[in-house]
C-alpha cells in the first residue's frame, strides 16, 4: 500500500469514528460528503472499513453506506451508545486491515478532532502533550521504529518527549516536520503550513529542501515553496492557546480563514479585492468573533454585513 493509500485509509478511519461519536453536526456531514465525492478511492476505502467492522459484529447494517450507490449519500449515523464500542474496536480493525494487506501492524493508533471554538489537550502514550486549537483534526500512530502524526487541518501545539530511537514525524500534506524533543506549533490551512518553534529544534522538509528551525523561528510551507518568516518573540508563539492571536502583515483571507474556526456561521469575503488587504495587529480574545470583525471594519476599507446564515465582508 502506498503512503497515499495509507493516508486515505487513516482519513476514512477518522471519518467513521467522527461520525459515530455522537458529536458530529451538519458541517461534519457536509465535509464527509465532500471527502467521499473527491475520489473513488476515498469512497472505496470508507466502505471497505465499514464492511470490515461489520464482519467483526460491532455495527448493525443500518449504519453502513450503500456500496452500490454511486453518489455519496449518507445513511443515518450510529447512536452515541455504539460510539464507545466502535472506538474500542478501532485498533483491532486497524491490525486486521494491516495484516490482510501484508503490512506490519502499528502498535497504537488514535484520532482526535475539535469543533468550532473548541480547544482540547491530549496526552500521548510516550508522555508527549498536544493541544488542539479550534476545528483541528489529526491522527497519531506509534510503532517500534517511529512516532507519526498526520495533521489534516487546524492548529496544534506539540510538546514532544525526546526518544532518539523513535523519531517524531508530522505529515502536513505538502511536507514533513521531524523532531526529537521540543515544543512548537503548527498551523495548517489547506496546503498552507506555518511552523513556529518555542523550544528546541525541528527540521521541516519539502521534497529535497530542508530547513532547521530553533526557538523563536518560523517558516511557511506550501506545495510550491518553503521559506523563513520574521522571527517571533517566544511569548507570541502559540499565543492562541491563551486565546490571543497575533498577525503580522497577513492577508485578510488568512485572518478570515482562522476566524471561521471560531464562528458559528461562515464568514465570507464578498469583494475579492479585500482578500489581499494586509492585516497587522494583536487580538486578545480572538474567539470574540463580533469584536474581531468590528476591528477589521475599523482598520480596513471593509464593511461587515450580517445575516442569520453568514457574515459578508465587502467594500464600504
UniProtKB/TrEMBL annotation:
Please list the residue ranges annotated as the FecR protein domain. Answer: 112-202
GO terms, molecular function: sigma factor antagonist activity
Query: Which domain of life does this protein belong to?
Result: Bacteria
Which Pfam families does this UniProt record tie to the protein? DUF4880 (PF16220), FecR (PF04773), FecR_C (PF16344)
FecR N-terminal domain span: 10-52
Q: Ranges for the Protein FecR C-terminal domain?
A: 246-310
Recorded hits in Gene3D superfamilies, A to Z, give:
2.60.120.1440, 3.55.50.30
| PANTHER family in the record | PERIPLASMIC SIGNAL SENSOR AND SIGMA FACTOR ACTIVATOR FECR-RELATED (PTHR30273), PROTEIN FECR (PTHR30273:SF2)
**UniProt name for this protein:** FecR family protein
Amino acid at each position: 500500500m502506498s503512503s497515499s493509500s495509507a493516508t486515505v485509509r487513516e482519513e476514512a478511519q477518522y471519518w467513521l469514528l467522527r461520525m459515530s461519536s455522537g458529536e458530529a453536526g451538519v458541517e461534519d456531514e457536509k465535509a464527509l460528503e465532500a471527502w467521499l465525492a473527491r475520489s473513488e478511492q476515498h469512497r472505496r476505502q470508507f466502505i471497505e472499513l465499514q464492511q470490515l467492522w461489520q464482519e467483526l459484529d460491532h455495527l448493525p447494517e443500518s449504519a453502513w453506506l450503500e456500496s452500490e450507490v454511486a453518489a455519496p449519500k449518507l445513511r443515518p449515523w450510529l447512536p452515541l451508545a455504539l460510539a464507545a464500542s466502535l472506538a474500542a474496536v478501532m485498533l483491532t480493525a486497524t491490525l486486521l486491515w494491516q495484516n490482510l494487506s501484508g503490512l506490519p501492524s502499528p502498535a497504537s493508533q488514535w484520532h482526535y478532532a475539535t469543533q468550532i471554538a473548541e480547544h482540547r489537550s491530549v496526552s500521548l502514550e510516550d508522555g508527549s502533550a498536544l493541544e488542539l486549537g479550534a476545528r483541528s483534526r489529526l491522527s497519531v500512530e506509534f510503532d517500534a521504529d517511529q512516532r507519526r502524526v498526520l495533521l489534516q487541518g487546524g492548529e496544534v501545539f506539540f510538546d514532544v518527549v525526546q526518544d532518539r530511537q523513535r523519531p517524531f514525524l508530522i505529515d502536513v500534506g505538502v511536507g514533513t516536520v521531524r523532531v526529537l524533543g521540543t515544543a512548537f506549533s503548527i498551523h495548517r490551512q489547506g496546503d498552507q503550513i506555518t511552523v513556529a518553534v518555542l523550544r528546541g529544534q525541528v527540521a521541516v522538509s519539502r521534497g529535497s529542501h530542508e530547513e532547521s528551525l530553533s526557538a523563536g523561528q518560523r517558516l511557511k510551507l506550501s506545495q510550491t515553496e518553503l521559506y523563513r518568516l520574521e522571527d517571533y518573540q517566544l511569548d507570541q508563539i502559540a499565543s492562541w492557546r491563551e486565546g490571543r492571536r497575533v498577525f503580522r502583515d497577513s492577508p485578510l483571507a488568512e485572518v478570515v480563514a482562522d476566524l471561521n474556526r471560531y464562528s458559528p456561521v461562515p464568514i465570507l469575503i464578498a469583494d475579492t479585492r479585500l482578500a489581499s488587504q494586509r492585516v497587522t495587529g494583536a487580538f486578545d480574545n480572538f474567539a470574540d468573533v463580533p469584536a474581531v470583525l468590528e476591528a477589521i471594519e475599523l482598520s480596513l476599507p471593509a464593511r461587515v454585513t450580517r445575516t442569520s446564515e453568514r457574515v459578508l465582508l465587502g467594500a464600504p
